[in-house]
Structure formats: structure tokens, C-alpha cells
Amino acid sequence: MPKVHQLKPADSEKITINLSHVDLGRIDLLVRDGFYSNRTDFIRTAIRNQLSTEQEQVSQSIRRNTLELGLLDLTRADLEAARDRGEMLDIRVVGLARIADDVPVELARATIGSIHVLGALQASRDIKAALADRIT
């Protein structure tokens, strides 16, 4: 199995959220008064604070579900090695899983038994379509 790497703070995924007008106004007050540099800074800080509060529960869930935490890069060489060993990979990641652009669809289907990613999966459209029945 390929090695899982720590994600750098610069690695991020864009999300969209809906907030009430009142909550947004309260955030804008804190930004205006200099507590945060902008709305994004406030939201990012709030999320980090909540995740810090729930750290033990997150850690227990990762252990219980045998998930890897961080960045998993699957290269063509990784998948060819798995194929040569006759091994099917079960990918379970909290963070980011990336399948290299040069991985042929046939190789991915022959070596990836399942993919469970809490975070983001980066792969070509063809790979995602070919593995759609294995992605949970």
C-alpha cells in the first residue's frame, strides 16, 4: 500500500455554506471590529476550534474505522505493483486521495477494490466513472 503523507496547511478544498443574514451580519461585525481579517478567517477559525474540541472523538473514529489520515497518492507504479502481487487495494482515507493522471482505467479497475474518502478524491473523470461502483 502506498504511504500516506501529512497534508500541508496550504492544501485545501473550497466549500460553500449557507448562513442566515443575522449570522452573516454578526460575523461582519467581528470582522469590522478587527477580531478577524475577513469572513473566511472567522469561519476557518470556528471550524478549527470545533474540530479541536472534538479531537478525541475524531481520533477514536479513525482508529475504529481503520482510516488513514492525510494525503494518499496512488501512482501508476503503486497500482502496477499491487497488480503484480495479485492484490486488490481498499483505500480508506480521511483527507485527500489522489490517483495519478497517467493511471489507465483498466489498471485502476484491476487493482482498486474500494475507495472510501472522507475529504476529497482527486482523479480523472474517466477513473471516477470507472470506479463509481466502488466509491463510497
Distance between the termini: 19 Å
The largest beta-sheet arranges its strands as 1-2-3-4
Q: Roughly what percent helix? A: 40-55%
How many strands appear in the DSSP assignment?
Answer: 4
Topology as H/E string?
Answer: EHHHEHEHEH
Using only CA atoms, what is the Rg?
19 Å
Shape: elongated
Unreliable runs, pLDDT <50, ≥5 residues? Answer: none
Describe this structure in words.
- It holds the Pfam family RHH_8.
- This is Transcriptional regulator, contains Arc/MetJ-type RHH (Ribbon-helix-helix) DNA-binding domain.
- It comes from Palleronia pelagia.
- The protein has 136 residues and is of the alpha/beta class.
- It folds into two domains: 21-53, no CATH class; 61-134, no CATH class.
- Helices cover 44% and strands 23% of the residues.
- The chain has six helices and four strands, in the order E-H-H-H-E-H-E-H-E-H.
- The chain has helices at residues 21-32, 39-53, 55-64, 76-85, 105-111, 125-130; strands at 4-5, 68-74, 89-99, 112-122.
- Strands 1-2-3-4 form a four-stranded mixed sheet, covered by helices on one side.
- The longest helix is centred in the middle third of the chain and has 15 residues, at 39-53.
- It is elongated.
Quick overview of this protein structure:
With 136 residues, the protein is α/β, with parallel strands linked by helices. 44% of the residues lie in helices and 23% in strands. It folds into two domains: 21-53, no CATH class; 61-134, no CATH class.
